[in-house]
Amino acid sequence: MNFKLLILSLSFIYQIFSQGTGITVCVSNSSCSQCTSCTNCSNVTWQYNQSSNTCAVADCTKIPSSPEGLTDNLCASCPPSTGANFASLDGTQCVSSSQSCINATNGNGQNWTDSDCGKCSSTYQYANSKGTQCVNSGQPCNSQSGWTDSNCSLCFPNTFANSQGTACVGSQFSCQNRSQSQNWSDDDCKLCNPQKQFATSDFSNCCASSQSCQSKSNWTDPDCSQCQPNTFASNDKSKCVASSQSCSSNNGWQDTDCQLCFTNLKFANTQATQCVNSSQTCNAGSNWNDTDCQLCNNSQTFASSDKTKCVNTSQSCSSASNWTNQNCVLCSTNTPYAAADKQSCVASSQPCNSTSNWSDTDCSLCNPKSPFASLDYNSCVNSSQSCTSVSGWKDSDCKLCSPSTQFASSDGTTCVASTQSCQSNSNWTDQNCGLCNPSTPYANSMKNGCADPSISCIVRDPTQASQVWTDSDCQACYQVGYRSLPDGSNCVNCLAKSGMSNSDCALCNGTDDGDNQFANSQGQCVSVNCQQTSGWVDSDCAVCNPKTPNASSDGTTCLNTTYKALLATSLIAFLLILI
Fold first, then answer.
1. Which is the most buried residue in 169, 251, 345, 410, by most CB within 10 A?
2. Where is the signal peptide, in residue numbers (predicted)?
């Protein structure tokens, strides 16, 4: 290429030297002072044509081989080739541009083309966008690629190359070489980056978001990742948040993410599947309530009794009915069993529906209305005292505490398996007495009480020496006033008012003073021998037999009143006859 330029230059010089007189081009005075040539053209002169009032180079061959400071006048008068009528911008050659090169770079020209600019200057070889001058651009100003800020500033003043280098744009700052202090704006991004039209949230770059990064609504995760890397759209789409995952996730939730993604759902549930509007974190160790548990736990929906956790019960731990052992132990390990009425949970040592091993403590917890354990420990009963009491027993408590020993002993110290109440007044047996009254283990002879004879009162064989009656046994088996017969075969009621015999009366009253040692006709003991055959007087007759209160006249018998009156009437009648 340089070789060709050298040949052209030599040819140009040759043409200059070989032309002779130049073409008339310069309108001037006779001295041709208005015509210019070049700085090293001292041998070049101008020739005046008086008829046309113009000048022309007198001898083109006088032009130096390496001219400097060529002018349009000289080139027009001595063109090296057809049309090369203008001096190049550096004044070293004549060129065939369509206009003078003199205005190529001063901005006062017009209609400049790349062709003219290339002819006028190898340095300023491209016309700017408006064609007002030639510029030192690295490429044509109508290029579709390869743009740089420096080329744009030459071709399109006050512009910058877009990010792809495909055009020059009127952004506020450079698209390709922007400093950290020069923030991006949506307008600049749209100019610089057709594919990334919005400035990021921190204005540090442009991104391919579907909306401005300064928007207050309609956010999506893709837009947030463009505008603000490592962020996601909030649940209400009003902003981007720095959560660890998408706000539309259905697992992996944690409290910090919930508080970023939601305005009113601040805590992650225990399964980390969603955010909930509980009053505290779902990882709390206290202050739980049913509402929070139901929000935080799909399977553990009720707060424990001490509010330290949520539990998988079938009802609230504050319920007042329908309790089960399973619910109780979940609600409170301190009260693991449902009370018998199912209205509460209790701290008993075993389930309240147990059928053995009961204690008073457990009964009072499980069955407040039946607060005592039965004597066999198989149930709870509503006795008036503990079934282990050693005093104060009564039949009603015994029947409750021990159905097999349903009567209270006479002294109330225990319950016994008697066949009737120990307070009974009849039908006593030795067995019942032995149970009810250990100190008086035998039924008395009337079976209306218990006694303490040496052997049984009612099961006795007085024919045997060891079972004969004694005074003490008689008094024990019957009552005070009874004495045993001398042969020990029976007892006599010395206080009887009837049925007594002389022997009985003699036994009971003795014979020392004769008082009441005889039995009268009514079986009462009297002081008159009612079996005497003489010496009767009316008073003795009245004592021995009230029905025959009158002694006969000879004192040998006792007569009743009717017989005596009849005898008296008969005597009177007999006496009257005698008279």
1. 345
2. 1-18
Are 141 and 156 a contacting pair, CB within 8 Å? yes
pLDDT tens-digit profile, the chain (579 residues): 333 333 334 344 434 433 456 787 787 777 788 888 788 988 899 998 888 888 999 999 999 989 999 999 999 999 999 999 999 999 999 999 999 999 899 888 889 999 999 999 999 999 999 999 999 999 999 999 999 999 999 999 999 999 999 999 999 999 999 998 999 999 999 999 989 999 999 999 999 999 999 999 999 999 999 999 999 999 999 999 999 999 999 999 999 999 999 999 999 999 999 999 999 999 999 999 999 999 999 899 999 999 999 999 999 999 999 999 999 999 999 999 999 999 999 999 999 999 999 999 999 999 999 999 999 999 999 999 999 999 999 999 999 999 999 999 999 999 999 999 999 999 999 999 999 999 999 999 999 999 999 999 999 999 998 999 999 999 999 888 899 999 999 999 988 889 999 988 988 887 666 588 899 999 999 999 999 999 999 999 999 999 999 999 999 999 987 655 555 555 566 666 776
Q: Which residue has the tokens 């282990």?
A: 388
Question: Which token pair is 448?
Answer: 């209306």
Edge to edge, the sheet with strand 54-57 lists: 26-27, 54-57, 46-49
d(CA 440, CA 5): 160
Cα 421 to Cα 136: distance, rounded to the nearest angstrom: 136
Residue 394 C-alpha from the chain's centroid = 53
3-state secondary structure 361-412: HHHHHHCCCCCEECCCCCCEECCCCCCCCCCCCCHHHHHHHCHHHCEECCCC
* Contact predicate 157/168, CB 8 Å: no
Strands (DSSP E) contained in 240-331 are: 240-241, 267-268, 275-276, 302-303, 310-311
User: Which residue is associated with the tokens 């935080």?
Assistant: 296
Q: Are 140 and 114 in contact (CB under 8 A)?
A: yes
Give the CA distances from residue 370 to residues 324, 360, 365, in Å, rounded to whole numbers and listed in that order.
19, 9, 9
The amino acid present at 73, given as its one-letter code, is N
User: Other CB atoms closer than 10 Å to residue 141's CB: what's the count?
Assistant: 23
**CA pair distance 248, 241, nearest whole angstrom:** 12
Name beta bridge partners: 196. none
Q: Which two tokens stand for residue 325?
A: 């052992």
Cα dihedral angle (221, 222, 224, 228), rounded to 10 degrees?
130
Name the pTM for this structure. 0.59
- CA 512 vs. chain centroid, Å, equals 104
Q: Could you give the 3-state DSSP secondary structure of residue 424?
A: coil
